[in-house]
Amino acid sequence: MRKPIVAGNWKMHLTLAEASNLVQQLKGSCESDAVEVAVCPPFTALSTVGQLLKGSRIGLGAQDLFWEAQGAFTGEVSPAMLADAGCRYVIIGHSERRTHFGETDAMVQRKLAAAMANGLTPIVCIGETLAERDGGKTFETLTKQLSGAFASCEGWDCGKIIVAYEPVWAIGTGRNATPEQAQEAHAFIRQWIGKRCGAEAAEAMRIQYGGSVNAGNAAILLQQPDVDGALVGGASLKADAFGTIVKAAAASQTKVVNRS
Ligand code: 13P
Q: Which residues are catalytic?
C-alpha cells in the first residue's frame, strides 16, 4: 500500500512573514498519519520554514537544486545546502523550469542523480503540452522525459523516487486533467517504471498528479488507483484549501486498487 504524498509548491510566492504565517496555519490542520505532507517554499524561506516545522509531521522541500557540490556557480544551490536547511524533498524538472529556464532532460537527469546521491527525495516532474496532447503525442513525451531522467538509474532504489505527472496545459489554468486522463497517464508511467526499474520499484513508487488541483477536485483525482498524491501550486498557498486536499488524500487510502 503506497502512502499518498501531498506537496505544496509555493513557487515564487511569500515573504518570510507570509511564509511563517502560512506554516503556522498548516501545522495541526494539515498533519495526518495517513498522508505524507510537504511544503516547498522559495529558497529564501527554507530555513525559516524548516525551523517552524521542527517537531511537526510536515516535511520541507526545495523547488530546485544544482548538481555540483560547491564552486563558482552564481545563483545556484547545492544538494548539501538544501539538506543543511532541513530539506527532505526536492522538486526537479518542473515544467516552468523547462519552459522559462531551458532545463533539458539531460539536466533533469543530473539533478536527479545529485538528489539521489545526497539522500534527498526527488519529486521529478513530467508532462505534455497541450499541442502534444492534441497531437496524440502524450505518451511519446512522457517516454522521452522519463528516459532522460532515468538514464542512469542503475543501482538506485527507484521506488523511493516520486514522479509528478503535471500536464503543462493544466498548470495554473484552472483546467485540471479529468480523473480518466490522469489515471491513464499515471498507469502508463508506472508501466514504464516497471520495465525500466523493475516491478517492485513500480509498485512502491508514488506518482503525484499536479495541475489545478484544488479543494473541489482533489477527492476524485486522488480516488484513481494510480494517483498517489498531489503536487499543488496555487491552492497550497491557502491553508484551508490545502487542508482539504490533505484530507481527501487521507480518505483515498480506502480506495480499492484493482490491478488486472
Ligand atoms: P497549480 O496547482 O497552480 O496549477 O500548479 C501546479 C504545479 O505546477 C505544481 O507544481
A: 94, 166
- Closest protein CA for atom 2 of ligand 1: 233
Q: What confidence tens digit (pLDDT) does each residue in 199-250 have?
A: 999 999 999 999 999 999 999 999 999 999 999 999 999 999 999 999 999 9
CA dihedral 31, 123, 42, 68 (to 10 degrees): 140
Q: Count CB-CB contacts under 10 A for residue 152.
A: 12
- Extract the C-alpha cell encoding 228: 498517489
Exposed, middle or buried, 87 (CB in 10 Å: 0-12/13-18/19+)?
buried
Burial 241-259 (b: 16+ CB within 10 A, else e): bbbbbbbbbbbbeeeeeee
Q: Is 64 in the pocket of ligand 1 (CB under 6 A)?
A: no
* Residue having the nearest C-alpha atom to atom 1 of ligand 1: 233
| This prediction's pTM | 0.97
Q: Are strands 36-40 and 58-62 parallel, antiparallel or unpaired?
A: parallel
List the domains of the chain with CATH numbers. 5-254 (3.20.20.70)
